[in-house]
Amino acid sequence: MGRIIAIANQKGGVGKTTTAVSLAAALAIAEKPVLLVDVDAQANSTRALGIGEDPQRPSLYDGLTGDVPLQDLVVPVEGLPYLHVLPADRNLIGAEVELVDVDRREFQLKEKLEPLRGRYDFLFLDCPPSLGFLTLNALTAADGILVPVQCEYLALEGITQLMDTLEKIRQSLNPGLAIEGVLMTMFDERTNLSRQVVDEVRGVFGAQVFQTVIPRNIRLGEAPSHGKPIFLYDIRSRGAEAYLSLAQEFLQHETQGVGQGAP
Which end of the chain has fewer CB atoms at under 10 Å, N or C? Predict the structure, then answer.
C-alpha cells in the first residue's frame, strides 16, 4: 500500500510546492510510482507540472464534492512516466463551503484516496498555506507530514505552532500521523542567519530534520513558469542536485523509519 505524505506549513512562501513537485519528480526518476495530489485551489503544483487550466477537465473539487472517483481524475506528467498528478483548480475554494454539512467531512479525502493507495508507492498531498478545511482533510488522510521551513527569522516559532496543531489532530482525527521530516529550504550560504536557523531547528527537532538543505536557486524559481519540474528544466542546477539528494535521504528514512514520530 502506498504511503500518503502531506507537505504542509501554514506559512506561505516556504518552498512547499517546489518541494512537493521536485521530490515527487525525483522519486519518479528513480522509477517509484508517485501520485501528486494538488490540494490547493491556487493549483500551483498542477501548473508547475505543465498541466494548464482547463474548465472542461474535472479536478479534485469534482472528486471531493461529487461522485467522480479520484482515480478517474489522475493525469500523467509528460516526460516522467512514473509520475501522475491529481489536479486542482480554483473551484476547490468552494469545497470549503459545500462540505461543511457533510457527514465525516474531515475524512472525505482520506476515504476517497484509499482506492489509489495500491497503485503508487507514494502519494504526496500539496497543502494550502493555511490550516483550513482542505489542509485538515489532508492531515487526516496522511500517514506522515513533511514540513518545509524557510531559513529565516522566527522560523522556529512558526514550526512550533504547526506541531501544536499536529498534536491536536493526532488526538482527535489521526492518531497515526507521523513526522516524516523537517526540510530546511531557501538556505543562503552567504548569511550567518541561514546557518543559525538551521542549527536552531536541528537543536529542537534533532534527527527529524533532513540532512539535505535546499539552497536558494534561481533555476528552482524559473522551472514552474516553464511547466517543468527542475530535472526536466535544468538537471545540472544546484536546486536539482539538492532535491535528488533529498529523494535519496527520503527513501533511506522510509526504509529505516528515521524521523517518523512525534517531535
Answer: N
Q: Is 3-256 in CATH node 3.40.50.970?
A: no
pTM strictly above 0.85? yes
Domain boundaries, the chain: 3-256
Q: What is the pLDDT of residues 14-26, one digit of tens each?
A: 999 999 999 999 9
Quick one: pLDDT at residue 124? Answer: 98
Whole-angstrom Cα distance, residue 82 to residue 8?
23
pLDDT value of residue 262 = 45
